[in-house]
């Protein structure tokens, strides 16, 4: 379905352009779409859903983690290179790089991506539905202001006639042609009309304030809308049957699309939960290296004096000493190798596969699957309910539009007949055949029918456009 703000711009193209602080319907709708708090929250939900989709795609990438540590040891410690215990102070550093990749997890990663796509689509549908709802609210409020202004114009126009009638009646009374009671009757009528005008002006201001509040505009005093004359177009949609409109609405309306996406999400949740029953196969690879500035000791045989002799015992009976030889080692301090050399000398790698087989986890997997199935059944019921609600709403909108049409036609007929009656009463009053009271009654009936016609007209326009939107009429096919 096209953006409803553009639709209303084309439908109500008779509005005058923006001048000073007078707002057109399009400007009001755009203001609401830009400033409405609920829409801004829905936009954040849409953005968050996009991040969830990116997270799901990221699960297909290998994990890569690096770590490094530097420490200084004092006292008895193990040299991280030689693994010998020594009492000294030395600096050591280690570095590691680990790579992991999930080869199989019951297709859960794949289905998480599918679920994330449905979630992002549902968030977008929610945003567009909210925009349509806000646009309808603004359009209805805008029409209410126009209606109140039209009613005010009717009352002001008729009051001008009444003021001219006062002058005319006063001349007749002063000339002795009409009784003074006629003048009092006309003056009373004028007072009543002034009260009605004041009430109509108040209704205009209240409707303007209500619209301004919808648009989050604080300057009520200077807020006003551009006036224009609205015509009735698109009545051919009433030639369609409610069934045809309902079928189109099921294909176009966001309520159904949202419910369908929620069902798809719930079904994916069932598949994801079932994936936990399967083994998980992962691959890993690790690389590490180390460095230390600790010195070490090296022992070697003294080439000048390779052996040492010492008495190790004596021969019993003769007392002859027994001499033993042992290698003559000399110790030397070995300085640490350069940093870069140690990184190459002390590195190592590790790699392999890991298999995780779920056997028993306290029924958590089983219960998770059952909960997902229940949620899927609930989503299916919600979809069915959404379809029923939409069908009911379409039928209601269809009947409302038909009823509004009948009311509008009856109001037109009433205005036509009351206009003739008013004209006839005026002619008779001018020649003195009826008194001022009877004439004021005829004039009041005519005024009321004009107000009723305005109300019926704008009510019919709004309900007709609602029905067209349910049907999904494209912008380029709207009659205006």
UniProtKB/TrEMBL annotation:
Residues 152-203, 249-276 form a coiled coil. Its main location: membrane. It holds the Pfam family OEP. The keyword Transmembrane applies. InterPro entries: OMP_efflux, TolC-like. GO terms for cellular component: cell outer membrane; efflux pump complex. This is Transporter.
């Amino acid at each position: 379905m096209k953006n409803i703000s553009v639709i209303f711009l084309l439908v109500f193209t008779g509005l005058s352009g923006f001048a000073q602080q007078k707002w057109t319907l399009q400007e009001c709708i755009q203001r609401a779409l830009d400033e409405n708090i609920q829409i801004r929250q829905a936009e954040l939900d849409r953005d968050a859903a996009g991040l969830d989709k990116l997270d799901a795609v990221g699960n297909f990438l290998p994990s890569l983690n690096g770590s490094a540590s530097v420490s200084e040891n004092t006292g008895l410690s193990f040299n991280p290179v030689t693994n010998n215990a020594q009492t000294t102070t030395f600096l050591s550093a280690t570095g590691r790089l680990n790579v992991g990749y999930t080869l199989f997890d019951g297709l859960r990663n794949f289905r998480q991506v599918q679920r994330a796509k449905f979630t992002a689509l549902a968030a977008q549908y929610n945003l567009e539905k909210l925009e349509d709802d806000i646009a309808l609210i603004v359009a209805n409020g805008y029409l209410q202001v126009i209606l109140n202004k039209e009613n005010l114009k009717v009352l002001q126009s008729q009051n001008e006639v009444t003021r001219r009638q006062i002058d005319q009646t006063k001349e007749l009374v002063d000339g002795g042609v009409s009784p003074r009671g006629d003048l009092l009757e006309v003056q009373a009528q004028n007072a009543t009309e002034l009260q009605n005008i004041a009430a109509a002006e108040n209704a205009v201001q209240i409707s303007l304030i209500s619209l301004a509040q919808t648009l989050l505009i604080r300057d009520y005093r200077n807020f006003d809308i551009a006036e224009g004359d609205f015509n009735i177009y698109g009545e051919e949609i009433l030639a369609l049957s409610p069934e045809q409109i309902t079928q189109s609405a099921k294909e176009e309306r966001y309520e159904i699309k949202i419910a369908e996406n929620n069902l798809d999400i719930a079904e994916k949740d069932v598949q994801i939960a079932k994936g936990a029953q399967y083994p998980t196969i992962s691959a890993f690879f690790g690389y590490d290296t180390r460095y230390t500035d600790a010195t070490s000791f090296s022992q070697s045989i003294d080439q000048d004096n390779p052996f040492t002799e010492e008495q190790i015992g004596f021969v019993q009976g003769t007392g002859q000493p027994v001499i033993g030889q042992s290698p003559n080692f000399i110790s030397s301090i070995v300085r640490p190798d350069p940093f870069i050399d140690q990184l190459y000398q002390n590195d190592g790698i590790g790699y392999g596969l890991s298999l995780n087989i779920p056997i028993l986890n306290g029924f958590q997997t089983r219960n998770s699957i059952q909960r997902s199935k229940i949620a899927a059944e609930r989503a299916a019921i919600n979809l069915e309910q959404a379809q029923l609600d939409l069908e009911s709403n379409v039928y209601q909108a269809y009947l409302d539009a038909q009823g509004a049409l009948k009311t509008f036609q009856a109001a037109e007929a009433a205005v036509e007949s009351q206009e003739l009656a008013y004209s006839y009463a005026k002619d008779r009053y001018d020649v003195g055949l009826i008194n001022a009271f009877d004439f004021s009654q005829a004039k009041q009936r005519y005024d009321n029918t004009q107000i009723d016609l305005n109300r019926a007209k704008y009510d019919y326009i709004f309900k007709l456009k609602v029905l067209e939107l349910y049907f999904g009429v494209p912008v380029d096919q709207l009659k205006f």
